[in-house]
């Protein structure tokens, strides 16, 4: 038995208005003797905040770089990370640190680029577990939409020319995270639901598999309780109390899966993202609704949450997919043995074939 031994975030601040602690936190790091010595920071910020008040509250100094990034055209790519690293290195050298302000996409961009300032060549060389050779630079994450758990995870998921796979190692984990629930208040209802459902699915999948254990279970149990308070019943909805809860649920869901594993839904979701470029959380919802035979109770509950918030998922999508597309997605999903091993068991290859997975996609 291999026991998982993971690194946590070094420091976490939580609370409404805690964003404004950033200036003090960074002041200590700007001229930290352990840093590159250039004394400037790179801020990567979701373009959603262009022209918004939050942008003015970023404690950037004249020498810093604030980069607004549109995360909607595609999930973060290796090419995008390499280009950002090269551009900053060529103009001003290695920053004292990277600060990411945004959702899972921005969290992953901040984590990945912080590693690529100190590791030579393209980020495609490091997609996988423990391939990174040198520790990255200081990096701080500020989530503005909650659910993926990217703020707490040890991976920075990147889509490369060959694979969609994370830069995964201890050094990927943030040095500091600022959890300010005020920042997620502006998330539109559909995204609030899809991203929150990622947390919900993390917990259901973590709980239902061979790797679940008392440690992962405790996080999942609490996170599921919070999800039910946020999304079901009379107190459900986007309220300040629920935003506080969602930020915590996201972290705990992430911790749960870290010490257990995700399962069938995430395997299918990876195929949908890689081949059809569907976004992670939305792709999970598309797949999960059809997995009653794997996660019965969970599927029924998620559907109830969708109904309560008037969000409808499209049906009959697979009618428009060629056999070639379905096969390509099934190949991506099949090549995630750790997920099948957890969800089905060590003998999963006797139960799950490429054909089984193709049939699952045909349900969508
Ligand atoms: P995202 O970062 O892609 O953002 C989703 C949308 O929400 C965007 O349109 C964004 O502009 C908008 N948005 C963000 N904050 C907002 C706010 N406060 N108000 C209004 N709009 C806001 O969303 P995500 O779902 O958090 O992240 C998805 C990405 O995370 C994918 O690239 C996926 O691969 C990655 N991911 C990473 C991990 C990990 O462990 N590293 C885990 C799961 C997913
Ligand atoms: Zn997920």
A few lines on this structure:
This protein has 364 residues and is an alpha/beta fold. Helix content is 47%, strand content 12%.
Describe this structure in words.
This protein is an alpha/beta fold and 364 residues long. It folds into two domains: 11-184, 3-Layer(aba) Sandwich (Rossmann fold), CATH 3.40.50; 189-362, Dehydroquinate synthase-like, alpha domain, CATH 1.20.1090. 47% of the residues lie in helices and 12% in strands. It has 14 helices and nine strands. It has helices at 22-30, 53-57, 78-92, 104-116, 189-207, 214-231, 240-259, 264-276, 280-288, 292-308, 323-334, 337-344, 348-351, 354-362, and strands at 11-14, 41-46, 65-69, 97-102, 128-129, 138-143, 155-159, 164-168, 176-179. The strands form two sheets. Strands 1-9-6-4-2-3 form a six-stranded parallel sheet, with helices on both faces. Strands 5-8-7 form a three-stranded mixed sheet. It is globular. The mean pLDDT is 96. Zinc ion binds next to helix 5 and helix 9.
